[in-house]
């Protein structure tokens, strides 16, 4: 069976988007700086990292807020993902982009559906922060791929909050140095 | 002239100590886990890292809170540092440990005195978080050495807050992999 993998870009000061996130500005103020490695400062290493998550993931899970601000309008009705996507939401959206399925029964049900879809491939927990934290707190994540962006963003949405009740042990699987980012992958020890 | 270097251990979720910091528990609840690489999980690489900061620093700067909880009682009246230490404080302490000098005129005055003491060696900004952030916000830091501990600590004192007004650009100088920690060093671009 595949692994359940969080794969996300985070600034050294812990942010995964800037403030003022909206459909017009899905990454928030200055938030695109977290993706310099995908755009302006892209290297062959970074392209490989993106290809890897796209090729190894058989399903992707996103939260409703991420769907609303980063998918629906931003991609003009098309899915940015080459694999099926599940949206965790309390209610179904009026308009659902092709390639997306809404799950209204919480993270465990979403994971169950994702496993069926993904088969032997990984399940990518894309975000947002709240969904990622829910999966971590539930002990459901196998690996964390953090694209550590070489900036202090200063403000925005934090990946991690102050609400874990126990220390989570990590083992670094690899660390790959690129120009604008250090790609660090951890296994979560259980 | 030497560089002004922040050198500190931080969990992947951004904490440099646990909650409930006190003279009896200077790193707070579970906070010693940030220093596994110095103690239980120490390797030759980690020893070199510690030796490096000790040997290259000609002066160290700490905040008053750090002095009170981590120095005064914890080290029984002796300094843990092989180099002169400056304490940034609003008022002088009643008891001042040998090797420490109190500076009551703020970070720039402390830096001025540290430069005189350090000569060609570096100045180590040890912490706490508040002092480090003051130096970063004032544009006074040359390099950040982050000992990225392979844990999610879950709660405690964050190194970075939400109050930077501009994105701070970093350049990774090196990344050194050890067992319990990844030592990542950044230059702050100005």
Characteristic terms for this protein:
homodimer; 190 residues; alpha/beta; Dihydrofolate Reductase, subunit A; 4 helices; 11 strands; 23% helix
Q: TL;DR of this structure?
A:
Two copies of one chain form a homodimer. Chain A is α/β, with parallel strands linked by helices. Helix content of chain A is 23%, strand content 33%.
Q: Looking at the chains present, what oligomeric state does this protein adopt?
A: homodimer
* Whole-number mean pLDDT of chain A: 96
Structural class of chain A: alpha/beta
Q: What is the radius of gyration of chain A computed over CA atoms, rounded to a whole number of angstroms?
A: 16 Å
Greatest contact pair?
A: A-B, 35 and 35 residues
CATH superfamily of chain A: Dihydrofolate Reductase, subunit A
CATH class value of chain A: Alpha Beta
Q: What is the percent of helical residues of chain A? A: 10-25%
**Tally of DSSP helical segments of chain A:** 4
Q: How many β strands of chain A by DSSP? A: 11
**Which stretches of chain A are low in confidence, meaning pLDDT under 50 for 5 or more residues running?**
none
Q: Can you write the helix and strand succession of chain A as a string?
A: EEHEHEEHEHEEEEE
CATH architecture level-2 label of chain A: 3-Layer(aba) Sandwich
Descriptive notes:
2 copies of one chain form a homodimer. The first copy, chain A, has 190 residues and is an alpha/beta fold. Chain A has one domain (4-189): Dihydrofolate Reductase, subunit A, CATH 3.40.430.10. Chain A has 4 helices and 11 strands. Chain A has helices spanning 44-56, 64-72, 107-118, 129-137, and strands at residues 4-11, 15-17, 57-63, 85-88, 100-103, 122-127, 143-149, 151-152, 157-158, 168-177, 181-189. In chain A, the strands form 2 sheets. Chain A has an 8-stranded mixed beta sheet with strand order 5-4-3-6-1-7-11-10, sandwiched between helices. Chain A has a two-stranded antiparallel sheet with strand order 2-9. In chain A, strand 3 (57-63), helix 2 (64-72) and strand 4 form a beta-alpha-beta unit. The two termini of chain A are 17 Å apart. The relative contact order of chain A is 0.25. The mean pLDDT of chain A is 96. Strand 8 of chain A pairs antiparallel with strand 10 of chain B, so a sheet runs across the interface.
């Amino acid at each position: 069976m595949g692994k359940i993998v969080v794969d996300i870009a985070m600034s050294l000061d812990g942010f995964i988007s800037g403030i003022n996130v909206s459909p017009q500005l899905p990454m928030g103020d200055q938030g695109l700086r977290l993706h310099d490695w995908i755009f302006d400062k892209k290297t062959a290493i970074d392209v490989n990292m993106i290809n890897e998550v796209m090729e190894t993931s058989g399903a992707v899970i996103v939260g409703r807020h991420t769907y609303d601000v980063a998918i629906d309008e931003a991609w003009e009705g098309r899915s940015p993902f080459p694999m099926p996507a599940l949206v965790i939401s309390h209610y179904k959206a009026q308009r659902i982009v092709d390639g997306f399925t809404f799950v209204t029964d919480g993270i465990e049900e979403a994971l169950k559906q994702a496993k069926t879809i993904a088969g032997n491939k990984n399940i990518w927990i894309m975000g947002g922060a709240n969904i990622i934290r829910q999966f971590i707190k539930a002990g459901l994540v196998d690996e964390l791929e953090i694209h550590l962006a070489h900036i202090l963003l200063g403000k925005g949405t934090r990946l991690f909050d102050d609400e874990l009740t126990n220390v989570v042990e990590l083992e670094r699987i690899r660390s790959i140095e690129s120009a604008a980012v250090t790609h660090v992958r951890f296994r979560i020890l259980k």
